[in-house]
């Protein structure tokens, strides 16, 4: 997740890279790999309170990083979004999680492609 706070491009570029990387991996491998949240979240939440709590903590940390990147991007005028950073980060995370799950179910990149297109409208480039 370091690419939210460092790496090539501005804050908007790095946020979009998260979605683009997931899409790229899906297209190359034909499956979602490496994300236990996507693979196990529904089952784990019903079976183990400790694991549910751990997964929630991890998700909260990711959303906090997203919120920070959104706030920093807004402050540096490289992206625009409505509302406050944390609720917007929660929406972006939920969109990512849902798109990953639907891509896994359908074995299609379309949910990830559609999520990426929508994210580009949510975190718009400011008008000059």
Automatic annotation (TrEMBL):
Keywords: Transcription, Transcription regulation. The keyword Protein biosynthesis does not apply. Pfam families: TetR_C_13. Residues 13-118 form the Tetracyclin repressor-like C-terminal domain. It comes from the Bacteria. The keyword DNA damage does not apply. PANTHER family: HTH-TYPE TRANSCRIPTIONAL REPRESSOR NEMR, TRANSCRIPTIONAL REGULATORY PROTEIN. This is Transcriptional regulator.
